[in-house]
Design goal:
Blueprint (H helix, E strand, L loop, with lengths): L15 H23 L4 H32 L5 H14 L2 H11 L4 H5 L3 H5 L1 H10 L6 H13 L1 H13 L3 E3 L2 E3 L1 H6 L6 H15 L3 H22 L4 H8 L4 H13 L1 H14 L24 H15 L1 H12 L3 E2 L11 E5 L4 E5 L6 H20 L11 H4 L1 H16 L4 H34 L7 H16 L29 H19 L1 H14 L5 H6 L8 H23 L2
Parallel strand pairs: 3-5
Antiparallel strand pairs: 1-2, 4-5
Helix pairs in contact: 1-2, 1-4, 2-3, 3-8, 4-8, 9-12, 14-26, 15-26, 16-17, 16-18, 16-20, 17-18, 18-20, 20-21, 20-23, 21-22, 21-23, 21-26, 23-24, 23-26
């Protein structure tokens, strides 16, 4: 077993192969620029040529872009990767004016008519329709070129500052220097004193960097506000919803349902607080405290076995995918200095592969994180069979397969347990995750909403801390001890630091609740579900959120669907609260 992922199927370094592909990409973009400027005689020829170039460039561009990003994810001190990331941005900028030119041109044609005369236009009409709509928000060619150049120096640089600052942040804990990922993982430790000391150490360490990171976040959000105003979007949220291929009524229905279920989560958190000996709600440092009898720390080998067993219990296809990912070293599992925190999956459909980063320390939660990220990888496996321009799905649907796979593994573990205290451990660990994805995500959504409301000017670190505390109180209500919250949750979450990914919080809630709803369908008809489910995953790149849901006879614009999904979580809350009383 390797302790790092194998990237050799992408590249073995920034060597001759990488250089050759970089030259090839630049050549393709030069040809594309010349083609767009030539404007062939017929609309069909023009659009078909555009789509053909996009298909040729998509796979190569993804491979070239992914490699330095993956290198940087596990070693933020690498000096070569950012150079090539910058070089790629320069290459992509060469076609900015032509991209604008073509998008504006699309507004002049009748795509419905052209789709009846061309198979490739018909195939990609969904994307072309969206590009037509998006063209309404374009600036002039010169302005788009200017912004694409300045963005690297503005929001791009501020984002890198946050990543470098937190990844290299040394934290003093019990006489040792550890990483941010390691100290945050101690929130799952079996020892209450370790959890509390780790929380205190984390908060104290943030005080040394909060000024510069607060400035980074403030400037990123101010840039977003300025650009959305120039482009004619009513808000950052409206822009995100368009990019997410999702209606506002769908988001409103889901958020309303989540708000309605806050008392149930409050009940669970207060019950856990009493179980752990707290009187005024749960202190933040005990949110992830393990309970029950299952205090085992798992080896990575044991974690692989559990995930594979769970996946095979669903289908051979899913189990074989996990086996392949482990055997071919697609995963970088362990924390280390200079490695980013958290976990992610980078799908590489052009190679029919994925790469997964985690920070595995042996907790049950870490096992479920592996299952979650492998779910993303399975989603990538399915969409790799799509046409090249259908290799990307919107944010809300990005969590569909990951939540589904996490649920499979969690329920597989529960099926093997009869001891009530062990069942409490597994079930409550799952409920921790659900609480994060419903209630903590709600707090992040509230926080970011208020942040944007104040982003017409600088927002100080003190204002930001107060906003985060207020958001946590509104979402968690009295489930948490209001004297022991986490005022710096804005500092360590990288999702806030991308000018192109605003409100990257509600998609997780969508994914959880949509995945729960799909899992309920699977339990009702397991034999017929699998094929329909794979078809749904394939469709996620080709349709709106609402139409994808309709393929499984689900109406996500109705609050009732979200309430039904939340009721599944509430069943776990009721059982966990009962088990707390029988300790």
């Amino acid at each position: 077993m390797m302790n790092t992922w194998d990237l050799s199927d992408l590249y073995s370094g920034f060597d001759s192969k990488y250089q050759k592909d970089l030259i090839e990409l630049e050549h393709l973009i030069d040809l594309y620029v010349a083609f767009i400027r030539s404007q062939p005689k017929t609309d069909i020829d023009y659009i078909q040529g555009y789509l053909s170039f996009q298909e040729k460039m998509s796979g190569l561009a993804r491979t070239l872009s992914s490699y330095p990003g993956l290198v940087m994810a596990t070693d933020v001190t690498n000096q070569e990767a950012p150079v090539y990331m910058s070089k790629l941005q320069q290459i992509f900028r060469k076609s900015t004016a032509e991209d604008v030119l073509f998008s504006r041109y699309l507004q002049t044609v009748d795509l419905d008519n052209l789709a009846t005369k061309s198979e490739i236009i018909k195939k990609y009409k969904f994307l072309l329709d969206r590009e037509q709509e998006d063209a309404k928000h374009l600036l002039s060619e010169k302005e788009e070129i200017m912004y694409s150049k300045l963005r690297e120096l503005s929001s791009g640089s501020w984002s890198r500052l946050q990543g470098l600052t937190t990844a290299n942040l040394p934290i003093s804990f019990r006489g040792k220097e550890i990483t941010l990922s390691e100290v945050r993982n101690l929130a799952y430790d079996n020892d209450k004193e370790v959890r509390k000391e780790a929380y205190d150490a984390e908060i104290k360490t943030y005080e040394a960097i909060d000024d510069q990171v607060a400035l980074a976040l403030s400037n990123i959000k101010r840039e977003v506000v300025v650009m959305n105003d120039l482009r004619g979007y009513s808000s950052a949220l409206s822009h995100t919803l368009f990019s997410s291929k999702m209606k506002k009524e769908t988001l409103d229905a889901m958020i309303d349902a989540m708000m309605d279920y806050r008392p149930q989560f409050e009940k669970y958190l207060q019950a856990k607080a009493k179980y752990l000996g707290h009187e005024n709600g749960l202190p933040f440092y005990d949110l992830f405290a393990p309970v029950g009898k299952l205090e085992k720390t798992y080896t990575y080998k044991e974690a692989q076995s559990i995930v594979k067993e769970g996946f095979y219990s669903y289908s051979k296809k899913l189990g074989d995918f996990a086996t392949k990912a482990f055997d071919k070293n697609w995963i970088d599992p362990f924390p280390k200095k200079g490695k980013r925190g958290g976990a992610f999956c980078s799908n590489q459909p052009q190679l029919k592969q994925s790469r997964i980063m985690s920070n595995f320390t042996g907790s049950l939660s870490d096992i479920l994180t592996l299952a979650h990220e492998l779910g993303h990888g399975y989603h990538g496996e399915i969409i790799s069979n799509n046409d090249p321009l259908f290799w990307s799905y919107p944010m809300p649907l990005a969590e569909t397969a990951s939540i589904f796979c996490e649920t499979i593994v969690n329920n597989h573990l529960l099926s093997m347990i009869t001891d009530p205290k062990e069942r409490l451990s597994v079930l409550e660990n799952s409920l921790q995750g659900d609480t994060q994805v419903v209630i903590d995500i709600l707090s992040r959504f509230i926080f970011e909403t208020h942040l944007f409301e104040k982003s017409d000017g600088p927002v100080s670190k003190h204002q930001r801390k107060d906003m985060m505390l207020d958001a946590q109180k509104e979402a968690y209500q009295n489930g948490l001890d209001h004297q022991v919250l986490h005022p710096y949750m804005w500092l360590n979450k990288s999702h806030y630091y991308s000018a192109g990914l605003n409100f990257y919080n509600f998609p997780y809630a969508f994914g959880l609740l949509f995945g729960k709803g799909l899992y309920a369908q699977y339990l009702k008809a397991p034999d017929t579900f699998q094929k329909s489910y794979d078809d749904l995953l394939s469709l996620t790149t080709k349709a709106t959120v609402e139409d994808v849901a309709k393929s499984m006879y689900i109406d996500v614009t109705k609050k009732d669907f979200w309430l039904d999904s939340l009721e599944q979580v509430n069943k776990d809350i009721e059982e966990v609260c009962h088990l707390f009383l029988t300790k």
